[in-house]
Design goal:
The complex is a heterodimer of chains A (315) and B (236).
Chain A (H helix, E strand, L loop, with lengths): L2 H21 L4 H23 L8 H16 L5 H23 L4 H21 L1 H4 L24 H23 L1 H11 L1 H6 L4 H27 L9 H14 L4 H21 L4 H15 L3 H15 L1
Helix pairs in contact in A: 2-7, 2-10, 2-11, 2-12, 3-4, 3-5, 3-10, 4-10, 7-10, 8-10, 11-12, 11-14, 12-13, 12-14
Chain B lengths: L5 E10 L2 E11 L4 E5 L6 H9 L3 E9 L2 E2 L5 H6 L2 E4 L11 H6 L9 H7 L1 H5 L10 H13 L5 E5 L7 H17 L3 E5 L3 H4 L5 E6 L2 E7 H5 L2 H8 L5
Parallel strand pairs in B: 3-8, 3-9, 6-7, 7-8
Antiparallel strand pairs in B: 1-2, 1-4, 4-5, 9-10
Classes of the chains: A mainly alpha (315), B alpha/beta (236).
Chain lengths: 315, 236
């Protein structure tokens, strides 16, 4: 793909978001959620797509960020930006502390440990109702204006612009990270871990770093959801959230930042559209799409699109 | 007397429960190039894999630059100055040529510019993916990538194996530059003694996991009887 075409497609992607703000005003709350989930899947991509470490418990960090930011605001500090940073810090700290557990042993062991940590956090949040509101959810989250100027409105305008801006900035940061020597080392580890060790890369330290980074990203996504909906339910820690994010990532294309975001958008839109048509049956269609993509080849939708473009361009 | 750069002291090593090396001792001095010769399956690859720490150690000690490295993991040995180029090359297929290089770079005289000057082919192919390279290009990239670590000792495992004669000449010239002009120490595993003896200082011959001969390379080159005995007629 030529650089010009690549740039045009990226401009189209972000321009599309901006256009949606004007074209679909009644859908802004949904669009804000899509941007937040796109950030969550992006965080998962850093870990799974780039470093090759598969997790089934990533909702743990999303939920931690959501509860951290939500409780901070409920307790009287409703400043959004510091709330995001607080959510990121709590998630990153837990990521850093659990990384040695998760990275012990083989891939399957790690997978089980991520699953176990997420289950524990879910039950802990359920039990600690005095702090989290338990099954009723966290009530009374009151956000201040962003930079003292933009109030969170009922129509989701501020929520959407805020979420999209955070997604865009963190995408830019992620792009810098994955093309840095650190990011290249992660891809090397995914390709051949033993080889990277012999080439002098402290593989374990790199994995701890990316696990923590990915946790921080997920924490910010969770914090965004808590702030924009001014509510946190147990659902933020649900297993379903981890599994869906993995699905979106595979759907869109692992190891590509746009693949991660695209997967989230398509999944969320399909979820919304199909569940209106056939409320009980929509997962059937997602299943078919997943099988088709798995058979059509690697790289998810983005990989498929790239190959089609290459064939079309080669003619 | 200065400490040797690499010291293997009565090292026994192998894989799983199988011993391949039996009490092998070998020193490599700073800036010295050693040819490691022998027939198939005598333990040449195991010896350099043991130096980097990729095998199971049953006994003996390993020191790098005077520091005990017997229990160090591979990445710590690489940090002490070992650069391993395995036979399988193991190029990162999903990274471009240039990304393969920068992913492992450590500060020092070797950088992307200089390794590309050594292998101009890599400069031409710098935006190609690792999966798009020919065998010879992969070998060049594997050596260049090890150089990006700025190693004090290069471990080359059959760098000429299975390559076209013209590529072999290119690689030999590059290896000569690395060990002669740059003065980087090296252990070079080869089956084809004649190509490698002229550019090394000493030669060791392995036989069934033991060092059976160790002498200056020129001395071995003048002993066709030894070459016949340990390496086979075609190498005399």
């Amino acid at each position: 793909m030529s650089a010009a075409l690549r740039f045009a497609l990226q401009a189209l992607f972000w321009g599309g978001w901006a256009g949606a703000y004007f074209a679909l005003p009644e859908y802004l709350p949904l669009l804000a959620q899509i941007a937040i989930i796109a950030l969550f899947v992006l965080s998962l991509d850093l870990l799974v797509g780039y470093a090759g470490f598969v997790t089934l418990g990533h909702a743990a960090f999303f939920g931690l960020g959501a509860y951290a930011a939500g409780i901070l605001a409920q307790q009287g500090w409703g400043e959004p930006i510091s709330g995001l940073l607080f959510g990121a810090a709590v998630a990153a700290l837990v990521g850093l502390l659990t990384a040695p557990l998760v990275l012990r042993g083989g891939d399957l062991t790690g997978l089980m440990v991520t699953l176990g940590i997420a289950m524990m956090l879910f039950e802990a949040a359920n039990r600690m109702a005095w702090l989290t509101g338990g099954a009723d959810g966290l009530q009374g989250v009151e956000m201040w204006e962003i930079f003292g100027v933009w109030r969170f409105d009922l129509f989701g305008r501020t929520a959407f612009v805020y979420s999209l801006t955070v997604l865009f900035l963190l995408y830019l940061l992620a792009r810098l990270i994955v093309s840095s020597p650190f990011g290249l080392a992660l891809r090397g580890i995914k390709g051949n871990r033993r080889r990277m060790e012999a080439l002098g890369t402290p593989v374990r330290a790199r994995l701890v770093a990316v696990y923590t980074l990915s946790a921080a990203y997920a924490g910010i996504a969770g914090a965004l959801l808590a702030q924009t909906t001014q509510f946190v339910s147990l659902d933020v820690l649900d297993f379903h959230r981890s599994a869906d994010a993995l699905l979106m990532l595979v759907l869109g294309g692992m190891g590509s930042l746009y693949g991660a975001m695209l997967g989230a958008i398509v999944f969320m839109v399909a979820h919304h559209a199909l569940s209106e048509l056939t409320p009980q049956f929509w997962q059937f269609w997602i299943g078919i799409a997943l099988i088709a993509l798995a058979i059509a080849g690697r790289g998810g939708m983005l990989g498929l699109a790239g190959r089609l473009l290459a064939r079309w361009g080669g003619r | 007397m200065a400490e040797p750069l690499l010291r293997l002291d009565a090292v026994s090593a192998g894989y799983g429960g199988a011993r391949v090396l039996h009490e092998v001792s070998l020193d490599v001095a700073e800036g010295e190039a050693v040819a490691l010769l022998g027939r198939n399956g005598v333990g040449k690859t195991t010896l350099i894999a043991t130096a980097i720490g990729a095998t199971r150690l049953f006994g003996g000690r390993i020191a790098i630059a005077g520091r005990d490295a017997t229990r160090l993991p591979p990445e710590a040995r690489a940090a002490l100055g070992l650069g391993w180029v395995p036979q399988e090359r193991n190029i990162f297929r999903s990274l471009t040529v240039e990304e393969n290089l920068t992913a492992v770079a450590r500060p020092g005289p070797w950088d992307v510019k200089r390794v590309q000057a050594l292998f101009p082919r890599l400069a031409e192919r710098r935006r190609n993916l690792g999966s798009e390279l020919s065998g010879g290009e992969q070998q060049m990239l594997a050596i260049a990538r090890a150089l990006m670590l700025n190693p004090r000792l290069l471990l080359l495992d059959e760098p000429l194996e299975g390559l076209a004669p013209v590529i072999v000449q290119t690689l030999l010239a590059a290896i000569r530059t690395i060990v002669r002009s740059e003065g980087t120490a090296a252990i070079i595993v080869e089956q084809h003694a004649r190509q490698i003896l002229p550019i090394t200082d000493r030669a060791a011959i392995l036989e069934r996991g033991r060092v059976v001969h160790l002498s200056p390379s020129a001395e071995l080159a003048a002993r066709p009887d030894l070459m016949d005995r340990y390496l086979g007629l075609s190498h005399a």
